[in-house]
Amino acid sequence: MEFSEVVRRRRMVRHYTDQPLPPGAVDRILANALRAPSAGFSQGWSFLALTDATDRARFWPFVPTRVQDTPTMQDAPLVVVPLAHKRTYLERYAEPDKGWEDRAESRWPAPYWFIDTGMAALLMLLTAIDEGLDACLFGIAPEHIPGFRTEFAIPDDYAPIGGITVGYRSPDIPPMGTRFKDRRRDPADVIHRGQWGDK
Ligand SMILES: Cc1cc2nc3c(=O)[nH]c(=O)nc-3n(C[C@H](O)[C@H](O)[C@H](O)COP(=O)(O)O)c2cc1C
Fold first, then answer.
1. pLDDT tens across 72-119, in order?
2. pTM assigned to the model
3. Is 7 a pocket residue for ligand 1 (Cβ < 6 Å)?
4. Distance 137 CA to ligand 1 centre (A)
5. From CA 112, how far away is CA 76, in angstroms rounded?
6. In 3-state terms, what secondary structure has residue 150?
7. How far is CA 136 from its chain centroid?
């Protein structure tokens, strides 16, 4: 698929069939996540991949709104939870070529551990489209994170940035609510050429 078509077709899809993914798709999606850029080449990310129905069933209680409001979301044959690991960044940037030996968080212009994990997540979303599949990134509410960690034995210093479903979209997908209809912001409102505002 042409790259511009991949970008144009990517929408968050919240209704799936339980049709299994094509052979190799899970591996290709995960492999592409690891191609994401990362600050200082830190790669301070990890990915919990749930493909077995029993493992996926262990996950959904931690995202109850999805179960309630979009029940076929649970049919998606793949759930990936990308996790950000701050300490990898603090340690990488304490190395001589970066020199932030004090490991002070105030040095960071933005939390690169979340940025990089988000970039990896986007690559997974785009790879799903390229595979002829659909995907959705959704949040895991803070109150559910401790239980989620315990259920999947995730160490405390790995922060889930959300969950990603991948699968075939349901043929009887309900029409998008007006809230989610295409209402991209006007480029003139958000792109500032040369300077912010009028010259
Ligand atoms: C960081 C992030 C968190 C999101 N969280 C949710 C979520 O919890 N539930 C959901 O249904 N969609 C979630 N979305 C999807 C957005 O609602 C969606 O990207 C937006 O409405 C634009 O639609 P599109 O991605 O289909 O173009 C999230 C997207 C991002 C980038």
1. 999 999 999 999 999 999 999 999 999 999 999 999 999 999 999 999
2. 0.96
3. no
4. 6
5. 30
6. helix
7. 8
- The pLDDT value given to residue 138: 98
DSSP 19: P
| Å from CA of 138 to ligand 1 middle | 6
Tracing tokens 């129905």 back to the chain, one arrives at 53
What DSSP assignment string belongs to 161-176? --EEEEEPBPTTPPPP
Total length of the chain: 199
Q: Which of 6, 8, 12, 13 to mutate to test the pocket of ligand 1 (most atoms within 8 A of CB)?
A: 12
Which residue's entry shows tokens 């649970």? 74
Nearest Cα to Cα of residue 136 among 66, 88, 187 = 66
Distances in Å between the Cα of 67 and the Cα atoms of 15, 42, 102, 107, 168 are 11, 35, 44, 40, 17
Q: Which CATH architecture has domain 3-183?
A: 3-Layer(aba) Sandwich (3.40)
d(CA 147, CA 164): 18
